[in-house]
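Dear all,

This email documents one entry for the complex benchmark we are building for the journal club exercise. For each entry we list the sequence lines for every component of the assembly. Then comes the predicted three-dimensional structure of the complex as a token string, followed by one or two observations. Please use this as the template for your own entries, and keep the labels exactly as they appear.
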Amino acid sequence: MPSINAERLMSDLRHLRTIGAVENGVVRPALSPADMEARRWLAGRYEEANLETTIDGVGNVLGRSRNSGPALLIGSHSDTQPRGGWLDGALGVIYGLEIARALGEDADTKDLAIDAIAWQDEESNFMSCLGSRSYVGGITPEMEAEAVGRDGTVLSDAITAAGLADTPRITHVDGRYVGYLEAHIEQGAYLEDAGEHIGVVTAIVGIRGMRIRFHGQQNHAGTTTMARRCDAATGLYEMAYRINQEFPKVATEPTVWTMGQVQIEPGAVSIVPGFAELSLQMRDQDEAVLDAFQKIIADITVDIESRGKIKVEVEPARAPIRPCFMNDGFQAHLARAADVNAPGKWRHMPSAAGHDPMVLQAKLECAMLFIPSIAGISHDFAEDSHDADIVRGCQVMADAAASILKEATGA
Amino acid sequence: MPSINAERLMSDLRHLRTIGAVENGVVRPALSPADMEARRWLAGRYEEANLETTIDGVGNVLGRSRNSGPALLIGSHSDTQPRGGWLDGALGVIYGLEIARALGEDADTKDLAIDAIAWQDEESNFMSCLGSRSYVGGITPEMEAEAVGRDGTVLSDAITAAGLADTPRITHVDGRYVGYLEAHIEQGAYLEDAGEHIGVVTAIVGIRGMRIRFHGQQNHAGTTTMARRCDAATGLYEMAYRINQEFPKVATEPTVWTMGQVQIEPGAVSIVPGFAELSLQMRDQDEAVLDAFQKIIADITVDIESRGKIKVEVEPARAPIRPCFMNDGFQAHLARAADVNAPGKWRHMPSAAGHDPMVLQAKLECAMLFIPSIAGISHDFAEDSHDADIVRGCQVMADAAASILKEATGA
């Protein structure tokens, strides 16, 4: 089996960290000068690895193996959060490069085809997963003329400013790929808490957002008796409290829900509120759990409305994001490789955060691998992982990539 | 016993309504041209009633009986809310005038001394109860230079603009008054709901305001497990819900509490809140009930903190207003008069809203009488009361005033 070069892997990761470095973090938002500098550097490294390299019209960097397929596409995004950490995205990008190199250097795997990719704007400077959306054919010129970056620049202008206006876009063509692999830091603390080194991702969780509105009657907080009040806020407090009592009865360990936004009108100390709105976000890989949550909300709604004081309105706050399931076969290859490289120290687990595979699954079978985040921190300058975990994760993915392609080629 | 003149009473109330009339409401904020016009008109009516009349340096209008004391001071405020009703304040002011006239016309009571008063700015254009505060000696030139009206004018400038800069202030001098009586619309619906006509006020309720702050840990709403979260908002939801469950166990009928203002930080759908703040206002005439409420809050605080996730901080949001108790003897006179004029159709009751007696009690024994508000509406153009209730209330107060002064003079 191929052996990854730990020193080269860490050296490339550390070099990428210097591009857009601020304090101990990285500021490399999509299409910024730092982002484009990183992409040009990556393209150079892909070329040195004997990959046929293209920077496309949105900035996706593809390093294509000169071997014929079936091929595996491996990578992540190289843009960062406005104040990002050094590993979010970068880790998976350099894994793709290193795995292409490592397999190319091993007599047993040198004929397998690994394409490396660095997607554009996964972190939503202009549009979440811009690069992978463009790849699957999900972007129109109108969308590019309307999307505005965090600094106020329109996406199409930013593309022109980056010198990409006349550059072709890479789009998916059926035939070459067995599928797509992506490694990422966990961005949570399950692995660290359990003393484990590898997470084989089962699914990216589905997200449902709800807005729950309470309609009562605004009134004087001194002279309106409790019996006469139709206090919209009391409905909100009851709903939120009972959600926190009832949801745990059907939740599983990875299920999460958040009520992070509240609006009360008129919002005065001395006025009985006539209106209140609660936002609720729920995430789980199992849609049955999310369905059960909606049933609980409906039951509490009936309860509150039955008292004849407050009307409750429940509506989706956003289009629901359905869970995105990882390919079972790829998971089995990753699991076997994890068993070899971290025996007894890995787990199957869902991803609670979104990633490019949610978009790519329209065209490609996908799988993901996690390595531990120190203290679960991400989207922050303090984001970090232990070198040993970074190296081990790359070896696991290299082993899995080799065995997936061997199986696909019948080698 | 003296008999009030119902036609004259209603005619004066309706005339006062025309000054500052907007739609079917009244806009006569303190020291506005309409307010000053109303005060000059009142001064003329006081003069016609043979009262020795003064408009003082803040606009208080005093009509002093030419009889020697002991005297009763009777009145209310003639300024209105920014969009006020026609009876809030005006009712009590015209009652004072009518009672002075009615007692002066009756052979049995013509030697009793009734002074009529129209206080300034009870409705907080510049400063709540400005007129009565000035009367008890509670206003300094610094306060007048700092107080700003709803239109941005400084109080001292507004006094100058009203032509009152060099006018002396009326202040309390011990000796003349047995006490102060004020009639008011109820501003609630207890009387109407019960089919009653008169409320004899026992006390103006005390008010305590609290700010309850919850300190947790801000985090990612996708990747932070429920077990690891220190969600400040969940503490707030629990506190608010349990307050609404526990307070009714110690509350009495007139007790009210309101949680009308909430702040959640950072207030994003997808971020676990690190901080939350709940405002709580509680009103009762019985401080033991308010004390019991604070004990409940303390108990819930201990419960929430015992889980080791959230710190709770409870602090007063304002200086507490203590309940203001009405004079028992005056209440007995009002009760006897109510028994005569509305047998079986009156009650003792607290006032849930604040009034000038809260200030005046520093110098004067006080009592108040309520008449029903249609649908409990006040501080709104739609505010109204039935004519029969207006007339009946004035007769009750006239009877009580006569009997209080007869008792005081030993007549």
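Observations: Residues 208-316 of chain A form a domain with the Alpha-Beta Plaits fold (CATH 3.30.70.360). Chain A has a mean pLDDT of 96.
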